[in-house]
Amino acid sequence: MPIFGHISYYRPGDLFANRLELSRAGLHRPTRAGVSGSEAEGADSIILADQYEDDDFREEEIIYSGSGGRDPRTGKQVTNQEMTGRNLLLRYSLETGRPVRVFRKVPTEASMSYRYEGLYRVVGAVYEAGKAGFLVWKFRLLPIF
Fold first, then answer.
1. Residues 116, 56: Cα–Cα separation, whole Å
2. Could you tell me if 62 and 53 are in contact, meaning their C-beta atoms sit under 8 angstroms apart?
3. Which tens digit of pLDDT belongs to each residue from 33-85?
4. In Å, how far are 14, 15, 125 from 1, measured between CA atoms?
């Protein structure tokens, strides 16, 4: 069951060693997928981990690429994405306006960690050609203050 908003005492800026730690804390349940949630309720959290070339993280907004269409060996986009699976979770979040926790993979002294960036709201979605030339879903998220 997804939980929307902050969980327990975790706040923006908190660091986590790996995805397993995020999962055990209940902050981002899947240990591999970048989107957590349910089709019935939408996305409760996402991770930006430099996996999709069309992701764009800025302080004032995030453009988060949908999932699918990538070659599992190279990680390159090789076909168009579809509005299925985890993309449906983000579309439903757009419709409901529920908050989404955002985590970002960042370099730290230990190597790489995941930083809690805070709560965001999905405010738009477009289906357009990405950098590799294939159609990708791009979800626009704005921070909730």
1. 16
2. no
3. 999 999 889 999 999 998 889 999 998 999 999 999 999 899 899 999 999 99
4. 23, 24, 25
Amino acid at 122: V
Q: DSSP letters of the chain?
A: ----S--TT--TT-EESSHHHHHHTTSS--SS-SEEEETTTEEEEEEE-S-STT-EE-SS-EEEE-S--B-TTT--B-S---S-THHHHHHHHHHH---EEEEEEEEETTEEEEEEEEEEEEEEEEEEE-TTSSEEEEEEEEE--
Per-residue confidence at 125, pLDDT binned at 50, 70, 90? very high
**Quick one: which of 47, 25, 30 has its CA closest to 116?**
47
pLDDT value for 59: 83
End-to-end CA distance of the chain, in Å?
Answer: 25
pTM of structure: 0.93
Residue in the block written with tokens 């449906």: 88
